[in-house]
Write a structure and sequence with these properties.
- By secondary structure, this protein is mainly alpha-helical.
- About 70% of the residues lie in helices and about 0% in strands.
- The chain is built from 9 helices and no strands.
- Helix 1 (about 5-15) packs parallel to helix 3 and helix 6 packs antiparallel against helix 8 (about 115-125).
- The longest helix has 19 residues, at about 130-150.
- The model has no long low-confidence stretch (mean pLDDT about 95).
């Protein structure tokens, strides 16, 4: 997941400063090599993550028949592998548009994998190797599914 241990520490200390007991999630992070999903759930329960709001907005747009981006992210496979480029480009545009309204833009862009998507698309423009783009879209899908599972 794109949410780093450092991000969790920052958010948890912010929650602690607001009077929320963060002892258990801090211990969970200290005792783990990666970010436990329980910590992400705790954080989201006490301060909704912007990246989760973003994915909810994408799903809502899909449910209201305004956009197919959410479906294209969660699809098993796209019919044409080159559609991955369009999905990643569309996702990056939506991330930028959403970032205008978040409190911590840098953290949101990291959680939404903005720079990863940019780097992947740049690599494709130089090498025409679509496989890293396909792999990244699968990672984004895994992020989305993991974040949706904590609600």
């Amino acid at each position: 997941m794109a949410i780093s241990k450092n991000d969790c520490y920052l958010i948890l200390y912010d929650l602690k400063n607001k009077g929320i007991d963060t002892t258990i999630p801090l211990k969970q992070i200290l005792n783990s090599n990666s970010v436990p999903i329980e910590v992400i759930k705790f954080i989201n329960d006490n301060r909704q993550l912007d990246v989760l709001k973003f994915y909810e907005k994408l799903r809502k747009s899909y449910n209201e028949k305004k956009s197919t981006l959410y479906l294209n992210i969660v699809k098993e496979e796209l019919k044409d592998p080159k559609e991955v480029l369009i999905v990643l480009s569309s996702l990056n545009l939506q991330v930028l548009l959403f970032a205008k309204n978040v409190e911590n833009r840098e953290m949101f862009l990291n959680h939404a994998r903005f720079s990863d998507i940019c780097a992947c698309l740049l690599n494709y423009s130089k090498t025409f190797d679509i496989l890293p783009c396909i792999k990244l879209l699968k990672i984004v899908k895994a992020d989305l599914k993991a974040l949706e599972s904590i609600k």
